[in-house]
Here is the input.
Amino acid sequence: MAQDDLLMPVPLPPLAQEGLGESFHLIKLWEEPNPKATLAAIAPGLRFIATGVPILTEGMSYPITAAFLARFPKLELVANLGVGYDNIDIAACAARGVVVTNTPDVLTEETADTAFGLLLCVIRQFPQADRYLREGKWLKTAFPLTASLRDRTMGIVGLGRIGRAIARRGEAFGLKIAYHGRKAQADAPWPFYERLEDMARACDILMVSTPGGPATRNLIDAPILDALGPQGVLINIARGSVVDEPALIAALREGRILSAGLDVFAGEPEIPAELVAMDHVVLLPHVGSASHATRDAMSALVVDNAVAFAAGRGPVTPVAETPWPLHAKAAH
Ligand code: 8YV
Here is the structure.
């Protein structure tokens, strides 16, 4: 039997390519000699797409916009590698009866580890201390004393799966925890702040672990940073779009907050030169989930979603906006 086409607009990890290649006729758009002609040829009948946020795409970016979706009248599934799916116009998918899946859970602990590692690096200046040693400066004098994690309160912006995993780590390190989000969560033992500014004022670490997209764009702006204050530290492992980057740069330059640890940036992989020039911040190249084990698990989940869906068993991890089976097209 002929295999169904599955379009991969951008390169996913090898394991995802191999796994999908076993069950589908995989169309790797970046390898096509004439991608435009390929898209035109497959568009009328295409049912399945597997994609990911630009981080893995070697400079390529292929957002799944409403205009892009409109080209595929028979599309049923967009399987996304990543828990975040702000690379996909989710409202357009929902309106068209297209199911979107993501890769939750399998990356929760890895990303929480990254967040906590970044926090420790920012507060205790470990990357700076490493540079200091390599530059031979220790031979002259000891590395300067740093800020401390002791007696701090961490405010978590977005208490989802990753936010909770970070909160657990925070408790193990003796931090006080608070959180802000759309609503209080009955089973969360930590103080809830309805107003982000109030939480920023009450804490000295702001940990951003909220989804990206229009609803959270520039949520962390100048007033929030000022509320966080001169001893305050901002950690962002979510999406660059959540932080007003020029406002953050100004706050860092003027000492209105102490420091920042950033794994994500508004225009990544391009980073504002002002940030790169600052020695008191810690910058990571979007490595939140970037271990072999976790990326393998994410790849396997993308494959499981596409294979189960195409076999009529339904997606494994559909996103909230396109629930299964309520949402999907009548055919499934
Ligand atoms: C990955 C991520 O970097 O899951 C996410 O939302 O940002 C990270 O896990 C990304 O998904 C890789 O495409």
In short: The pocket of 2-keto-D-gluconic acid is lined by residues 52-53, 55-56, 81-84, 107, 286, 288-289 (CB under 6 Å).
